[in-house]
Structures are given as C-alpha cells and as structure tokens.
Specification:
mainly beta, single chain
C-alpha cells in the first residue's frame, strides 16, 4: 500500500546477556523507496535497525542485538512512500512483507518461538507478537473564515469558510499568518523524526448517475439514462491557497476512489503527483482530469496535505519555512460527454530532447529516453527511463480493445524529420524505429505506427498504463521526432492524444541536438506551462524570428519536460561541453515564473542535473565570443538560496548578479502597502545597452492578476553593470537587469545578461513600432555580437527606411572592452566600416559587403583583425559607401 507504517512488535521484556533473533522473511515492494526493517528499541522509542530489506527477495535471518540496557522491544517494521505499490495496481504480490518462524532467546535460557499456526485468520498477533501501526499524527484540519485578511494574494478575495491545515492544537502560532498555526515540523536539525502530517478532507460518496440542480452538495437530479453511456469525462475543480516553499516539503495532493456494488471501496488513485507552487502566497484554480481514474458510478474525492520530510529530508529540502498552507474551497465535480478511451500522462514520462552520446563525435547516436530519472534523488547517477509511459482507460467503453494480432489496441504514431542544414539525411520510418518495448505495426512512408505494451513498474504490470520505446541506435543530430497516440475501446471508439493531432499539429516531439541550423540555443525551462508548447516559448518564437539575422531563424530549442518536477532532465544532464562549445555562440534560458529547480546545481533543493556547472564550463572554455541571457521571475532567488559553489559562481562571478529580494511587488509595499504590480522598466546608462542617443528604452513588466508576479530585485557585483531598473520608491533604487562582460581564460569575450523577469511578461510602454520585446532582444543580441535584422518591426508595422546616410557616435565612449557603432543606409549598396589607429594603420574591418537600406548596429570588442587586444588609446572608425564617407573618434580605456 501507499504511505504504510506498520509493525509486528513484541512487548517490552527484560533480557539477560546477549539477545538473539531469527526469522524467515519474504518481501516484495518498491526498491529503494519501501523498506522492511528488523529493529530493537534502544530506549524511549529510539528504534535501531539491525537489518533492512527492499525490492524483492527471501531471507532466513539470525541476528544478535548490541544492547546495553536490560530490557527492550523487538519489531518488524514496514514503511512505504506515497506511490508505486500494490495499491496502485502496479505490483501483483501477496503483500509487501511476510514473516514467519520467529525465534527470540537470551543467555539465561529464555526463548520464544512463534510460527502462528495456532492463530486464527485475521488475528492481529500471536504469543508475544502483536501487529500495529506507527504513531498517528492526528486530525488537525478544520474550517476557518475571513482568511483573506491574512493571505498575501491581492488578486483574489475569499471571506467565506475554507478548509485549513493546520488548526491550533499545537503551540506553533504562525508569525506570517496571525491567528493561524504553522504545520509542525516532523523532522528537524539532526534528523530527529516525529509523526508527519498526512491527512485529507474526504467527500461523501458521490453518485455519478445524479447531479445537483442547485450546484451544491445535494444530488437531487437524475441524469437521463440515454446520456449515461456518453459521459466518459470527469473533472475535479477546486480553489487552493498555497504558500509552500520547496524546502518546506509540506505539499498538497488529491485522490479518488470507487465503490463496488457491495459498498466496498477500491484503493485511492491519483496521477502520483504532489504539488507545491509559490512561496509568496496565491490562490490557484485547479482542474484535475479524472476521466481515466473512475471505473464505477459511486466515488469519493479527497483533497489533502502531506509532509514529505520523512522521505525527502536533506534530499529535496530541509523542512524549514513552514506555513499554515494549503487551504481549500469551492470544490466541484463535473461529469461531461466524452466517449471512448480516456488519456492521462505526465510530461516527465515522455521523451526528452537529447544530445549525442559521444562528446567528441557529433554524429554518434542520440538516445530516445524518457525525461524522468528512474534512480532516487539521493543517488549520484542520472539514469533516464528508456521507455515512455501514458495512461489510457475506457470505463464506459468496456475497456481497451485488443489488437487483431494480440496485445492492447494502443498505438504511438511517429514521424522522423531531418531539420538540419544540407546535406540532408534520409527519412526514417518502418520497422527500424521499433525499440525494446512496443511492436512495429505499419507505416505509410512518413508516419510509423508502434503498438504499445502494458507498462511494467517495479515487479509487475500496471493496468491502464502503456509503454513505448524507440530504437536507441538510429537517430543522429538534426532529427526531430513528432509523435502522438491513439487507442480503441471495446465499444469501437477511437481517441487520440493530443486530441487534435489526427488533423493537424502540434504534436509531442523531441529533437536530436544540435541541429546546426543556428548558433543560438534556447532552453525553454517553462515548457508546457500555460499552453501546449508553453507560454514563454509563445513569446520567444516570434522574437527569434524577427530579430535574428536569417529571416524566421529558429534557434535550437531544449524543452525541459516538467520543469519543476526536479527529475534531473535539464540540459546539464544530457549535453556535453564540447558539443556546446563548438555549436553555440549564445544560450538563452527562460524559466518563466518558476521559483525552484530552475537552473539546477545538482544539490539539495535542486536536482542532479548540474546546469550551473554546464554553463560555467561553456563560458570558460568557449573558443569564440559567447553570450548567456537568463530570464525568469525567480531564477536569481533560486540560485542564491541554493548557495552552492556552482550556483553562486554562475550568478555572481560570471553574471555579475547580487540577489536582493524575490518580489519587487512586496519590496515596494505588497498587498497592503501599495506595492507596484506592473513596473515600468527603464534602460540604465551604466551598461548603456538599452540607451540610444541618450534616450533610454522603456517597457512594462506585467505583473497583474490573476496572480501577482514576484519579479526578482537585483544588484551588481564587481563584475556587473546595471542594465535596467525598476521605478524607485521612497528614494530607493531597485534594479531589474544586470549585464556583465569579461574575458574567459582563452581570451574570448563573454557577455551575460540577467533579467529578473521572464520575456513572457514584457509589454510595450506605447503603441508604436517596433514592439519593445523585439527591440530589447535586438539590443541584447547585437551587444552579444550576433548579427540582427534592422527591420525588427515588420510585419506588424512598416519600419521607416532612413532618408539619409549617417554614422553615429559609438556608445559607450570611452569604452572597455566593447562598444557599439550604428549607421544608416538610405539605399542598398556596398559599405565598409573600418577601425584605424592614430597612425592611420588599419586595426579592424567590421563591415565589408553589400547591405540593404536600413539601420545597422555593429559591436567592436577591442580586438584587431588577428584577434589580439588593442592597447588603450584613441582610435578612428570610418564608414564608406557610394556617395558617402564619414569618420569619428573613439577612446579605448583598459
């Protein structure tokens, strides 16, 4: 079962001399997560482990107790985590543990033997042995109202009654929520353990053949019998207030269970997720799809809170920062027409973008692996699952049908397209795509159909879950693999996942990187949030297409599946340094509004994917000018909180960022003090990147409802410069963006830009061309020495073509070591831009070619044509084109 804490224990007994214990034991449980332990009481309930068993096996044990006291208790103790057990239907066993033939004896001649043959079936014990459970945490949920007075959410007001965890039965008054009580700690410094909270509010039994005409708890309406066969859809909707930082490890979850005709309940089921969100307090409006979880017409719903400190202490957090959250309200259950198979899936169980296995051979194979790491978080090894898994059931369709050739009628449709540059690679389809799990069915020369296998989890089959695999010795860099699923039930109805994919995309997909299409890598660390692709990607895609030099340029994209799940699937888990150094001039990383497991560092509160070290190595070892642009509402906050060497080296040393506060809104007053919700961000002359002809760029960071964004407030270290600032309040300046540029050990320029907000929250400050998001991106990429489009306003507006030729004064001036030179061309034609020293000798050719009419920005990094740094002094730059020539002076100060 899930969440078990059971024991077979002896009573207290005095012993003389050495104490011995022998037994026969069989166990069958989830390896490395569920355990059978043989223990003795060293005094005061301090149970010491003599032997431990996990996974599957049998043993005959004989142990001697290293006791110093005169009396003790003995016990066989079984405990399990919250998922992947018999209760989930994932194991086919006779129970997690069977113990028999127990003998205990001491040196005085006392002995006890028990084989339980004299005990009746169902007895809780025999002889000196008694079955029992661990110490209960207690029942501490209840109802409170007017919680909006103390909550931190300015967007949502709820004066009505809500279910709250934790009521004041323990002396732990909350300092952040006056009148409420924080969840007590169940494991603290030194690993001292007490019972952990794990309780829920449970609905009455709900009859799915009826409904409530008054939208309340009374089921007084009967659903027409003709509609019942069509009602395959079931949604649970509720409001939850959350203020649960990741280190807290107090999380919220939901469960559903059915009842048979005799009224006997089935096991509780869920998607095996537990949730945490923001640590600054906000209401979340949740919708859970229960379509694949109900198999009877009578069900119960549970909404709960669980403290995972007894499982994840010092693995995912330190159990600090407790609050009274979560609390629940407005719980609703909707049944709707949805015939056919019902799908469920987790992003972490799908294919993850990947890089070649061999670091120094770019054309080596790219594995088709699951995002999820199948090893526990405290194992140093990252071991992605080889196959992917989806859930599919059909309660009203009398179950999933069988394929005519045998096996389930559940299929994955796969299309493999080479998207890299010429020379092209051949199309991949047919039997060669078949992997270890799943069977080739057919293909049309483009799409290949793979039949799924019933999923195997741990020691048994997982009914309602299906696994698929692809050939790991087939794909090479440049291939994109699109895929979707279909299934047919015994009623003859077919359904697809995603539901639209039989007509058009987008599909699920993963890419074999690098494609060699672009020198830019975009890490979408907000993948799948807010839309199918993810809200951040929806803003970056048109930005890249408008700003970068090749029309509709699409950088390589690495999607982090399930970005807050902490399953060790960031690019640091797949990419090798040589592959990054050789292929990418710029890496753009956007984490949206996430506040934990953003750019991971491989330590507690992060995951095993050491993305920080990967970026540090890339910046240090790049053999060309390179640039890193980090965006996100909580990335600096996350890295500062990790406080590890890789996290702080990336943040402070390379990016020049000093973290100040996690919420500009709270820092300027918050909910009760007039906090600024959507600040107008202004370019700063310190870096001069967002300042043009002494006029700073301006744009809004939208932080408004339904959830107030918690934009990071930043400062600079010695290596940083202010790039943009929030509005000051009470004469205090608050910085929004930090820039840094320096030389790496190879002598190459390294540029970094850090935004305390995500690109998806940038908004125009006025209705005019160009779109601010495009202009800001153009400034950053130009400063990072990428070539950008001059007409970034098209096609939304027609940007003005210059009416004269012009060479602008460089900025900044004086400079060290980078400066930007802008010039205008009124007509298409040949143009040169060259740098000379005071002796008139050519130092560097920046432009030499034919250009379209428009405005151009060129960065000079203070190096000559041979790549060497030039000395401090006065230099001249000269622009020449048909009928126009101009020269200006600039000063290098090193």
């Amino acid at each position: 079962g899930n969440g078990w804490d059971q024991e077979l224990a002896s009573g207290a007994r005095a012993f003389v001399g050495a104490v011995s214990l022998s037994y026969k034991l069989a166990w069958d449980c989830e390896a490395d997560h569920d355990y059978v332990r043989v223990q003795y009481d060293a005094g005061g309930g301090d149970w010491q482990t003599l032997a431990s068993y996990t996974g599957t096996g049998v043993a005959v044990g004989e142990l001697t107790l290293p006791m110093t006291q005169a009396a003790t208790k003995l016990r066989f103790h079984f405990d399990s985590d919250g998922a992947w057990s018999d209760e989930d239907g994932l194991y086919d066993t006779d129970g997690a543990c069977i113990v028999d033939s127990i003998s205990a004896w001491d040196s005085s001649g006392w002995s006890d033997f028990q084989n339980f043959e004299a005990a009746a079936v169902g007895d809780p014990g025999a002889g000196i042995w008694e079955a029992g459970t661990g110490v209960a945490f207690g029942l501490h949920s209840g109802m409170k109202n007017n919680l909006s007075i103390g909550d931190r959410d300015p967007c949502n007001v709820n004066f009505s009654t809500q279910i709250v965890f934790f009521l004041g039965t323990e002396p732990i008054p909350s300092t952040s929520y006056p009148g409420l009580y924080d969840t007590p700690f169940c494991k603290g410094p030194g690993g001292v353990k007490a019972p952990c909270q794990d309780e829920a509010i449970v609905s009455p039994i709900i009859d799915l053949n009826k409904y409530s005409t008054g939208c309340n708890e009374l089921q007084n309406g009967t659903i027409p019998p003709a509609d019942l066969p069509l009602l395959g859809g079931l949604h649970l909707k509720y409001t939850v207030y959350v203020d649960n930082p990741l280190p807290n490890l107090v999380l919220w979850d939901w469960h559903v269970r059915g009842f048979d005709e005799s009224g006997c309940p089935a096991p509780w089921r869920s998607d095996n997720f537990i949730y945490w969100y923001w640590e600054n307090g906000a209401y979340s409006f949740a919708v859970e799809d229960l379509g694949s979880f109900f198999t009877s017409d009578r069900i119960q719903i549970a909404l709960g809170v669980v403290d995972m400190c007894d499982v994840w202490y010092l693995v995912n957090g330190n159990c600090a920062q407790h609050t009274p959250a979560p609390w629940y309200d407005n719980v609703r259950l909707y049944r709707f027409k949805s015939e056919g198979p019902q799908w469920s899936y987790r992003d972490i169980d799908l294919f993850q973008d990947n890089f070649p296995e061999q670091e120094f051979y770019l054309e080596s194979y790219v594995r088709a692996d699951m995002a999820n790491d199948i090893r526990p978080n405290d194992s140093p090894v990252i071991d992605p699952g080889d196959s992917i898994v989806v859930g599919c059931t059909s309660g009203i369709g009398e179950g999933i049908a069988a394929d005519p050739g045998g096996g389930p009628a559940v299929y994955m449709h796969v299309k493999c397209t080479y998207i890299g540059p010429t020379p092209t690679k051949p199309a991949l389809f047919g039997p060669s795509l078949e992997g270890t799990y799943g069977t080739y069915q057919s293909d049309d020369g483009t799409w290949t159909i793979i039949q799924g296998d019933t999923s195997r989890q741990g020691a048994g089959l997982a009914p309602g879950r299906y696994m698929f695999d692809l050939n790991d010795s087939l794909f090479t860099r440049g291939y994109r693999i699109d895929y979707y699923f279909t299934a047919r039930d015994n009623a003859g109805i077919e359904k697809a996942l995603p539901r639209w994919c039989r007509s058009y995309g987008p599909y699920f997909e993963f890419t074999c990187l690098p494609t060699k299409n672009s020198e830019v890598l975009y890490v979408d660390d907000f993948h799948g949030r807010g839309s199918f692709a993810g809200a951040a990607e929806n803003y970056w895609t048109p930005t890249f297409g408008r700003v970068l030099s090749v029309p509709n340029d699409r950088p390589d994209r690495y999607d982090v599946n399930g970005p807050t799940s902490g399953v060790s699937n960031g690019p640091g888990s797949r990419a090798k340094n040589k592959q990054l150094v050789d292929q990418y001039l710029t890496i753009v990383w956007d984490c949206g509004d996430l506040e934990s497991t953003t750019i991971s560092d491989g330590t507690v509160n992060s995951d095993k994917s050491n993305d920080c070290q990967m970026l540090i190595d890339w910046l240090q070892m790049s053999e060309h000018v390179c640039g890193l642009w980090v965006c996100g509402d909580g990335v600096a906050h996350d890295l500062d909180g990790l406080a590890s060497t890789p996290a702080l080296t990336l943040l402070s040393t390379w990016c020049g960022v000093d973290f100040v506060a996690t919420s500009y809104f709270d820092l300027t007053g918050g909910k009760s003090g007039g906090g600024i919700v959507s600040p107008l961000i202004t370019g700063d002359v310190d870096a001069g990147i967002f300042v043009h002809s002494s006029v700073p760029d301006k744009f809004y960071a939208f932080g408004g409802c339904p959830i107030i964004n918690q934009f990071d407030v930043l400062d600079k270290t010695a290596n940083g410069k202010y790039a943009a600032y929030y509005p000051a309040k009470n004469s205090i300046n608050y910085r929004a963006a930090i820039a840094s540029w320096q030389l790496n050990p190879g002598g190459y320029n390294v540029h970094t830009m850090w935004f305390g907000f995500s690109m998806m929250y940038m908004r125009d400050d006025k209705i005019s061309a160009p779109i601010d998001r495009f202009e800001i991106a153009g400034d950053v990429f130009t400063w990072m020495e990428l070539t950008t489009n001059w007409n970034i306003g098209c096609p939304y507006v027609n940007a003005e073509i210059p009416t004269t030729y012009r060479l602008a004064q460089n900025f900044p001036n004086p400079f060290n070591p980078i400066t930007t030179i802008k010039f205008d061309l009124k007509e298409k034609g040949p143009v040169t831009l060259r740098v000379y020293n005071v002796a008139g000798q050519l130092v560097r050719t920046l432009v030499d070619g034919v250009k379209d009419a428009g405005t151009y920005s060129i960065a000079w990094d203070g190096r000559n044509n041979g790549g060497s740094e030039v000395a401090t002094g006065v230099y001249f730059y000269k622009m020449e084109t048909t009928g126009f020539s101009a020269t200006k002076k600039m000063v290098m100060l090193r």
